[in-house]
Specification:
The protein has about 150 residues and is an alpha+beta fold. Helix content is about 20%, strand content about 25%. It has one domain (about 25-140): 60s Ribosomal Protein L30, Chain: A, CATH 3.30.1330.
């Protein structure tokens, strides 16, 4: 389906500096109508190395770094995040992820869900997807709900 047929201006982001190419038939993100929809990011380095044997902390940091790379490539930043969804292979990792996430995001608190899912692709421990406002749409923290 072409973007024009569904009444929106959409731009897929495939080649992200600092992120491995998508491993399937998807884009890292799609920018549409002032929003950025970021596909699930796994702990895979820019060179394509899957951090399967790495510690949970290393995997979580790489995954968040991948989200940052996609935001930057789209001309957005963490202050534009409005929703984050986290998938954990083991819910026992939730407290440690929460600490690492708080360090990464700072004071900003977008809507978030943490979903325990069991096994993830390649035996990895964490996956994160997100939705953000693009900079030209204004920072998310300036938006209020009526």
């Amino acid at each position: 389906m072409k973007a024009a047929t569904i009444g929106m201006v959409a731009r897929p982001l495939m080649d992200i500096p600092g992120a491995a190419r998508p491993g399937g038939h998807y884009s890292h993100a799609v920018a549409a109508n002032g929003m950025l929809y970021i596909s699930g990011q796994l702990p895979i380095t820019a060179s394509g190395e899957k951090l399967t044997g790495a510690s949970f902390e290393q995997q979580a940091r790489q995954t968040l770094q991948n989200i940052s790379a996609v935001l930057e490539a789209a001309g957005a930043d963490k202050s534009g995040l409005v929703q984050v969804r986290v998938y954990l292979a083991d819910v026992d990792h939730w407290p440690r992820f929460n600490d690492l996430y708080a360090q990464w995001i700072g004071d900003w608190k977008p809507a978030r869900a943490v979903v325990p899912v069991g096994a993830l692709h390649y035996g990895l421990q964490v996956e994160v997807e997100a939705v953000a406002l693009l900079r030209d749409a204004g920072p998310a923290r300036d938006r209020t709900v009526p």
